Structures are given as C-alpha cells and as structure tokens.
Amino acid sequence: MQTSxQTSxQTxxxxxxxTAVLAPIRAIVGDRGLxxxxxxxxxxxxxxxxxxxxxxxxxVLPDSTEALAAVVRICAETRTPIVPxxxxxxxxxxxxxxxxxxxxxxxxxxxxxxxxxxxxxxxMTVEAGCILANIQNAARDVGRLFPMSLAAEGSCQIGGNIAxxxxxxxxxxxxxxxxLVAGLEVVLxxxxxxxxxxxxxxDNAGYDLKQxxxxxxxxxxxxxxxxxxxxxxxxxxxxxxxxxxxxSDAVDxxxxxxxxxxxxxxxxxxxxxxxxxVARRHVPDVPDPLRxxxxxxxxxxxxxxxxxxxxxxxxxxxxxAGMEAxxxxxxVVAASKAQADSLWRIREGIPEGQKREGVSFKHDVSVxxxxxxxxxxxxxxxxxxxxPGIRPFSFGHLGDGNIxxxxxxxxxxxxxxxxxxxxxxxxxxxDIVVDLGGSISAEHGIGRLRIDEMPRYKSPVELEMMAxxxxxxxxxxxxxxxKILHSSGVAP
Length: 492
Description:
- Helix content is 36%, strand content 18%.
- With 492 residues, it is α+β, with helices and mostly antiparallel strands.
- The chain has 4 domains: 2-110, Uridine Diphospho-n-acetylenolpyruvylglucosamine Reductase, domain 2 (2-Layer Sandwich), CATH 3.30.43; 114-232, Uridine Diphospho-n-acetylenolpyruvylglucosamine Reductase, domain 3 (2-Layer Sandwich); 235-355, Alpha-Beta Plaits (2-Layer Sandwich), CATH 3.30.70.2190; 358-444, Alpha-Beta Plaits.
- It has a 7-stranded antiparallel sheet, sandwiched between helices. It has a 5-stranded antiparallel sheet with strand order 7-8-12-10-11.
- A hairpin with a 5-residue loop joins strand 10 and strand 11.
- The protein is globular.
C-alpha cells in the first residue's frame, strides 16, 4: 500500500479550521455537499489500483461552478490546500490527498450536466463530473461519436480525462484529449472563473489558454466544464486479431495498413503472448484467439462511414498482403459484432489479469513508432541481466508509440523482494525510453508516482518553465500541491 507523507509542502490544519474553513464552506454547499465522516470519506481517500491512500478533514461536493469557485476562494483566503478529484480512476496518485491530512478534497461528482449539444457545430458542452460513457451515449443518441475510449469509461469523469490528457485505444485516428477539447471553463486557484467555453475550430486571438490546463493534473486550476468535439458516427467497423513473430513485423504491418486504409485505422494494439495467458488465467470469458500460440499479436480495427462490405474487404486485403510479405503469421477477422467483442475482451482483460498475477512494475511510456521494437528488445535484455527471472509483459497502443511496459515478478519470487527492485527497474526502463527520444509518461500523467523522476528526465530549462507557470497561476501552492512538481519555490 502506497501512502504519502508530509510532501505537500503545507502546514498542518489551522487551529480555527472548523470556523474559518468548514463553516463557510458548509454555508455554500449545504450538508449534502460536505462530508467529514471518515468512513464516508474513505472511497475518496483511496485509489482503485496501486494502493495510494491519503487523509483529509473534508470532502466537498459543489453542485455548480459558482459554488465550487466560492469554495476555492475560501481556501485561497485561508491558504487551505486543495486536491481536485473526478472519478478517482487515475493511476499515479494525483487525485488522492497526502497522508498528513492538511488538504481538503473537492469532488466534481455533482457537476454532471450535459449543458448543450450543437449538432451543426459538432460539439457538446458538458460539466466536469459527467461520466465518459454517458457522454459517449449522449453523442450516439444524436448520431455523433465522442471517440475517447478507455477501460475506465464507465466510471471516469471527463474533467479527470482532461486534467490528465487521457489517451485510450482510438488516439491513432482521433487524438488524445488535447485534440478533442474546443473550450474550457476553469476555476483558478484564487477562485476566479475563466469562461473559455468557445466551440471554435479556429481562434488565433492570443495564447491558447485551454492547453495550459489540459494535462496539468489539477495543479493550475479545476476544470468545471468543457466544449468537446464530436465526430460522425461510423456506420461500419472491421476488426481482426493477427499473429506476428516480432514487434518489428507489427510496425511494418502498421505502415502497410496506413498506406491502404489511411485514417480509417482506429485501433492498432500490440499484445505480447504472456498478456493473453495472464488474462485467460484470471479473467472469465477471455478466449484464446487462434489455434496455435504465437509470441506477439496485433488487434486492429478500421471504421468508416460506408455501411457496405468494403471495409472488411479492405482489412482482409491488408492482412493477406502482410501474410505474403511475412509480416503476418496467422489471424482471424471478426465476422460479427459478437466476434469483434470477443477479440476486444482479450485486450480489455489484460489489466485485470495483471493486477491478480503478482508484483508488476508499470510503465506508461512512449517512443517514436519506428523505435518501439528497439525499445522492447533493449529493455527486455537489460532487465533480464539486472533481475533474472523477471517476466516480460508488454501491450499497448502501437499506433501512437505508447507501450504499457509492465514486467512481472518471477513466478516463484517473493513479492517483498521484488517490490524492493522497483527503483532499479524504473531507472533501466526510463533511461532507455529517454535515450530513444521517448517520454516516461504517455497518457497516465506524473502525479506523485513519477514526481521524483522528473529532474532526471526533464532539463533544468523545462523544469523552470513549468515551475514559472505554476508560480504564476498558484503563487501560494494550494492547488494539488506535491503533484507533477514539488513546491518549486512558491510562496508559503
């Protein structure tokens, strides 16, 4: 279990906390909007995975942007640090308070209205607490697609997706959250509201301020609403799972597919055989996709507006050409939605299976697509030398170079001994990633998980630019302190 000590850079609660902070907050949000009972607060204190646990004197649940802004003003005046929290599905400890109990949690759970759908403009204006799956369904109901798709979509909130610049399985075609947001509404650390809810594709009037907050993990302000970009709803999809002998063959197949299908390629996922074995061992109804076993697999999906058979024919022609070139060893093309769902069940079962398999070292990394195979070969070899018996376990979004490189402890290894190797494994993996021109965080963010690694992999110039931005927006360091960056010289 990961707990966090006094790393937020803040002092303990002020003696008059009840009267100076809680009482005026209660007057704004009412009893329904303020939780102080430890048992009721518990779900807000703990992460769903990886054991991040914190403490807080209160969880605040405003039901409007104005109420949230008023709460932040009280926190700013009293120098009370804030941890913004959405669906609490993050993976880096960014949405849990520290263990010192000095921070209040502000949850966006009650900011859950869809304010407007503009079909002609292909935009939807939503509040930060809207569940991602509900947004997808609302778009589908009017014949549109909101393409952000990830495993936690049934519980994650769009505000958190924006704050972490979420990726997912359709980034190859549609981009990550930076590409899907047209405008934002944000409560700043002093309690002012910035209304940038403009549904424009072109706006060159000065700095693009929304991009400052996308991916900032709640350290510069709290996103309260967003204008999202919608796309036409595909009328047809074609899905296949194919076997390849090595990641380099998967890269060659991706290049071939791009040349034929272009932006019809929605998903191109690389899966190591060990991932399928672990998913099948621990998760019900995960199929073994092919008769024989192969070292690597690719899950590919095309989508188009054409409702006929041409998409499936196009996919089959790509795979046939790949087989003739030696890139594809075997494969299956889904003949129905049920078969496609069964193939997707393999990919979706991997994280759950891994969670139950033992100690794993999770790395959400990206490298240029052309260097993915080199990254996997180099890192597997380096880890085997440093940690004999460690089990390679790699899967992810080959189409955008984002690999979840999550090696697992030796089968008969002692979990405590393997946990002690975390720093060694991280350094090996991340050193190779950066040497290949990659990033130590592709889509999960920095939070607390990677904060101490930032000075090793970011230049002093980059860190100072980020710290300058933090000081400018949050001079008293009350907004999610101790996440992404340490205090960075902000005023006490």
